[in-house]
Amino acid sequence: MIDDVALSFSPNSILVLNAVLAIVMFSIAIDLLPRDFKAIARAPKPLIVGLCSQFILLPALTFLLVIVTSPPPSVALGLILVAACPGGNISNFITHRAGGNSALSVSLTAFATVGAIFLTPINIAFWGSLYAPTRAILQATEIDPVSVAITVGFMLILPLLLGVWLNATKPEITAKMRKPLQWLSMIIFVAFVLGAIGANWANFTQIAGVVASLVIAHNLLALSGGYALATLTRVSPFDRRAITIETGIQNSGLGLVLIFGFFGGLGGMAVIAGLWAVWHALSGIALASVMSRTKAAQ
């Protein structure tokens, strides 16, 4: 039974994953300056649309997917949890490859990360409680929103603030470390996820076939939803590419931390997040290669 399988991470592995995600967030933050946030404040519409797509539209679409497909409870909650996470850090790299608004993408990642302190636990609790099978898991685990907020804050917000401060005060240092650190952090994160999958290979293969199609459908729904909302709200094609990718690239690393920290590595949830970590990178890069063939109007 898929809901009875639990993947195992040692406490040291969780600490390593926390550190890796903090480094990834720091590598994004050293691209930011305080003036970037002021520019967004002067023309906030694309940012607002992107955040609504991320934290309102995607969780709602995910809930509809759960209702239509009726997956096992742990898989359903995994989908809901991933949708409740902020945008993934590789979205900035992929947006740049797609010829979209990289500054908007970085700002969306930053604002969504800050908002995740409150919105991620709220979305997990709200949407998870609306579906009876996942409500039972939430009641059994008694997830504490304050603990989730503290986890997100220490792992993502502190590196964000440190990175912005360093870029503002020591730009010559961040200029030298920006590209190497971004590539290194991505390689370490992917290697960590693949290593975790390998360490739990028997259980992973037992579950992965059941949920792979759901992950692909979920990711397609996220990308399509972001594109549709950006089109309906009439943001520029340049901004639309950033919003589309930001909605379809989720911080599944944060999802894994929450799953192993609060849900005991519940198999269906962990495999959803693990497959997302691999698939969204592949789909995002493929989409970027298609988008980059034409120049987006600004």
CATH hierarchy, class: Mainly Alpha
Please count the beta strands (DSSP E, at least 2 residues each).
0
Enumerate how many helices there are, as a single number: 13
Helix content: over 70%
- Biggest sheet: strands, sense, closure? none
- Share of β-strand residues: under 5%
Shape: globular
Low-confidence stretches: none
The chain-level structural class is mainly alpha
Distance between the termini: 51 Å
- CATH architecture type: Up-down Bundle
SSE order, one letter for each helix or strand? HHHHHHHHHHHHH
Itemize the secondary structure elements and their pairings.
Layout: H1 11-29, H2 34-42, H3 45-69, H4 73-84, H5 90-98, H6 102-130, H7 132-141, H8 145-169, H9 171-199, H10 201-232, H11 237-248, H12 252-262, H13 267-291
Helix pairs in contact: 1-8, 1-9, 1-12, 3-4, 3-6, 3-10, 3-11, 4-6, 4-13, 5-6, 5-11, 5-13, 6-7, 6-8, 6-11, 8-9, 10-11, 10-13, 12-13
